[in-house]
Amino acid sequence: MQKQPTIRDVAQAAGVSVAVVSRVLNPGSGPVADATRRRVRDVIQALGYHPRTAARELKHGPPTTLGLMLADVSNPFFARLADNVVREADARGIQVLLMTTQEDEHLESECLETLIERRVSGVIATPTGDNLDIWKKLQDIGTDMVFVDRSIPSLPEVDVVGIDNVESARSATGLLAAYGHKRIGIVSGPAVSTTGRDRIAGYRLAVEAAGLEVDERLVRHAAFRGAAGGDAVTALLNLEEPPSALVVANTAQVTAVLRRLSHAGLSIPDKLSVVVFEDSPWTELMTPPLTIIRQPVDLLARHSVQLALAKTSGKSNGKPTTIRVAAELVERSSVSRL
Amino acid sequence: MQKQPTIRDVAQAAGVSVAVVSRVLNPGSGPVADATRRRVRDVIQALGYHPRTAARELKHGPPTTLGLMLADVSNPFFARLADNVVREADARGIQVLLMTTQEDEHLESECLETLIERRVSGVIATPTGDNLDIWKKLQDIGTDMVFVDRSIPSLPEVDVVGIDNVESARSATGLLAAYGHKRIGIVSGPAVSTTGRDRIAGYRLAVEAAGLEVDERLVRHAAFRGAAGGDAVTALLNLEEPPSALVVANTAQVTAVLRRLSHAGLSIPDKLSVVVFEDSPWTELMTPPLTIIRQPVDLLARHSVQLALAKTSGKSNGKPTTIRVAAELVERSSVSRL
DNA sequence: ACACAAAGTGCAGCCGGTTCCACTGCACTT
DNA sequence: AAGTGCAGTGGAACCGGCTGCACTTTGTGT
Fold first, then answer.
1. Which CATH architecture best describes the domain B165-293?
2. Do the domains at A65-162+297-325 and A165-295 have one common CATH topology?
3. Which residue of A has its CA nearest to B261?
4. I need a surface site. Which of A122, A155, A226, B185 has the fewest CB within 10 A?
């Protein structure tokens, strides 16, 4: 473990001043004679010199780090989002600091503190609790923030990227109604989440559009973590008039729901038709292959990174942007005609 | 967007010197009178002061950031690993810089450069190509390195954490043999990866232990990315004497393999018995539920983080450690008795 | 009362880059 | 020949915390 050469070592070895080395390091920051540049480059190579990011960041906090704060990376949807965000960021020479909140407001606030201390240039997040004041603080110090998947209505200054939740739930529910289902259940996210609410709203729209009445007993909110999804299913199945079709709009609870259905011995789609908000490859491997709502994760990631970097790079009009990309309904075989 | 207060602002507002503020910030670094401490704390609170990590890191690069370099976070195994690593690190007040190599040697070298420039205290990685010189360089500057899941034999100084690949493949293959299968195929990782090789080694052990001969045509290496897994399956099925059982030891290719089997109309386990290295929840939802090798991701993550932080915190004996945790064979219904 | 230690505090410089500005040549105008 | 412009370079002041050492208060023992 040797001690690392500094810019001054390089300068000395190349017989120039540190200013020149710095200019070689940051092309465009000033003129350097070609011969000098080559010489400095050679010395840098020979010494194995690498400028320290920390020192660099000290001068003017540069847009070199992005915070990615997700609820839970073990959820495949978020995992793929993370993968795409990292790739998009990498393509722009940006690094990603990954944090997970486990849907815990308190953990989230700690993560936010860290992001403040790091002076990251931007944050892409799935907000959990409200932590309103910290979010505002982060905003105050000039961090570009983007909420992805969910949002916080009381923070209107933040960019939002997500699918059109109302429309996607409407189309999923609409499909079931079109196949003749009259009693359609839905398991969505918690009522405090915008995602959870919007999808229920889309569901209502579709049910009413089909000329049916919304039976509140068929509408279930479930927490993102824990066994809430399974319990919701059980409750639905135990109804006097159980549903003949089910929309699982809570991605984090899809496997929990399916497991419960499987344990209940409910055969899909004979006894129950199902549409799920989950487009992992395995949904196609199930028997029967599941009809799903596909979220274009790549687009979500690209837009998020773009927005998170837009303000810094000056390409922004300053106004908060909301981007809703369309989710795709992929029909497979888990829905039967009634 | 206001400019942030610095330690000097705090000092001035509290009527003390920066040294005192610093000591309040870092308990244990020197004595401070209780009254002073309170006053300083109040001012910090009032001003909303947050020390900048970048400045802090300048002095002595501190163990506050860990690099996590994975091949592909959209692979559920790595995703869960990432989730656990982030949690373990967070519990120790450490942040995680996530990078993905996409199994690309060149991307990997760029990631490594970044890690060098950041002077991260430790790196947890699934190495891809060899990039030997950069790894050594990273090691030279005192970065604690841990290879997880795979390793690079020519870098013996690095800690390694993973499951016992030989043993796990042996037990998976052994199970199939015990059920009477004589022709057992295996699709493993590429031959250049330790994981790919070791699992094949375990396979051979089991086949020979069962008194059978290894038919090299049944042994397939497949790249982690792309359609290699599917192609391997097709090749196996097209054999004159196709296998009656299959071990899918390449986690990244499990869905590709299953998809190909499904398209081929092969019913599991009647026509083909299957054991897969993949313990995502969905494997239980398949019909039939898949017999799997379960990797204790939480343990892998915990050990990795511990090792990555051990040297820095001085709790290490200096010698490189290799930790092999046991993988568990979970019997479900995808294996039939022949 | 006096010496002397310990607690509490401040100054100033360092960490390793970036950048403003002043300075030197030299080619090119008039 | 004096004047102008600019490529090329170096000096030194930052950025925002940390910290060694010297200094001032206190408190304690005799």
1. 3-Layer(aba) Sandwich (3.40)
2. yes
3. A285
4. A226
